[in-house]
Amino acid sequence: MKTSFPRRTVLAMAAILPLAGGLKVTSAHATETLMTQQEKQVVDLLKSIETGAAEPVGVINPEKYIQHNLGAADGLKGFGELLAALPKGSAKVNTLRVFQDGDFVFAHSEYEFFGPKIGFDIFRFENGKIVEHWDNLQQTAGPNPSGNTMIDGPTQAKDLAGTETNKKLVSTFVDDILVNGRMEKLAGYFDGDNYIQHNPEIANGLSGLGAALKAMAQAGVTMKYDTVHKVLGKGNFVLTVSEGAFAGKPTSFYDLFRVENGKIAEHWDTIEAIPAKADWKNQNGKF
Predict the structure, then answer these.
(1) SS (H, E, C) 68-86
(2) How many other CB atoms are found less than 10 A from the CB of residue 57?
(3) pTM of the full predicted structure?
(4) 193: how many CB neighbours lie within 10 A of its CB?
(5) Do 164 and 123 share a structural domain?
(6) Is residue 199 part of a domain?
(7) What is the span of the domain harbouring residue 249?
(8) Is residue 281 part of a domain?
(9) What is the DSSP letter of 194?
(10) If you count DSSP H runs as helices and E runs as strands, how many of each does the chain have, helices first?
């Protein structure tokens, strides 16, 4: 599918995390909310990148930590080396959204990490320990033409009983529209022009998307989704992880959707260029 975002080059980064239960915690952008233990530990681990706290890292399995950030070597050693390369006191982490889907926890955060970035992190747990990590980072940009930033908007999952239904809706949308370009089906996934967009280049609504597509086509820039690797969700929030190309270069696409009344109501994303294999610091692949 052809769409319209000028290309953004993103540094790779690593992060890791932890476990499950039920805690009340207060975030900077949300009122007191019930989190699972693993969600809270993810928030704590990401925050430790800023604070340097050692305790949260204990939830990582030291014998098995598979790293998919291609800018970091495998295992705990690679994670430590990446953090050691940061100028002292420069890192900042503010996690806005965190959701658990089975053995996976995914987080949406704003970073100061070799410059301002917005990122998604995914962690896989096994026997109560983190054993695998994926992420996607993009330089902070915006606000977009509608005044929305890359991270504002609702943060708490609702409609928990509808998780699987919402995942199926988003999965079908991505397959129809982003992978196969069945544009005749586009309007059916939305409530008219009531669609909130957080991509820094695109305005709200289908009208904003249409204008962006037109501008991109005129510029001769293409974006193609080829393979969807993951669909994770909690309630009305669904994250998809896809592989494709942007402006002809291999690219990783992370898209977070909020569903309301059976329609897609809101969208956040990050787009990251995949480096040449010769530059990878591990051989696990991006996905």
Answers:
(1) CCCCCCCHHHHHHHHHHCC
(2) 20
(3) 0.88
(4) 13
(5) no
(6) yes
(7) 160-273
(8) no
(9) B
(10) 4, 12
